[in-house]
Amino acid sequence: MSRLISLCMRLAASLLGKDGNEWLQAMYAELDHVPANERLIWSLGCVMAALKRRFQSMRTGNLQISRGVLLLELLMCFLPITLGWWDAVFGQSGVLGLNQSVIEQHFLATPLDRIVLGMMIGAAIVGLAGPIGLFLTSRAAITGAGLKNRPLGIAMIGGVTIFIVASILLRTLFGPGAYAATPSFILLIGLLPALGIAHLMYLSRAETQAS
Known about the structure:
This protein is mainly alpha-helical. The chain folds into 2 domains: 1-57; 65-210. 76% of the residues lie in helices and 0% in strands. It is built from 9 helices and no strands. It has helices at residues 2-16, 21-31, 39-57, 67-90, 100-106, 111-126, 129-143, 150-174, 183-210. α4 crosses α9, α6 runs antiparallel to α8 (150-174) and α8 runs antiparallel to α9. The radius of gyration is 19 Å and the shape is globular.
């Protein structure tokens, strides 16, 4: 849990940049007074506040940040889901390793098994937001270009959102063994990719307004 809180605060720091040092110091000072069981939610709120501040500062369309900082921000958003996608596709229990015998033996016994199989296939599809996001990240770091294809961006955000909601429902209805919808899973596979995609879409919008 402490690692996730630290990750959120580092992400907030990178979003705020040097001009947001006072904000960041105030956040860290207040964090010490937040109850331990509420710190993760509070740190996620810091990320959202920092992201909102960054969007406001980018309305002129000139990015107002170095490409290096932009690269770091977006890598933090897309690397975890990319690693998850790689494991879901090429890992030891990835979908490419499935065959009819494995499916019949492990995934057709109960309705829950069928749902988990569907989630595995869904992870392989929805997880494409990771490598696509990394490609867009590389382009943004080099050229400053955002994501102009709004339907693609909306589809990526919608995909990760639906997948996370389905994971939470599975865990709620069937228990932790059904699907690992832990706070870290929700943050790394759902929230951060969605924020990264929204950031790229906003870059494109700001670029259009400036032109």
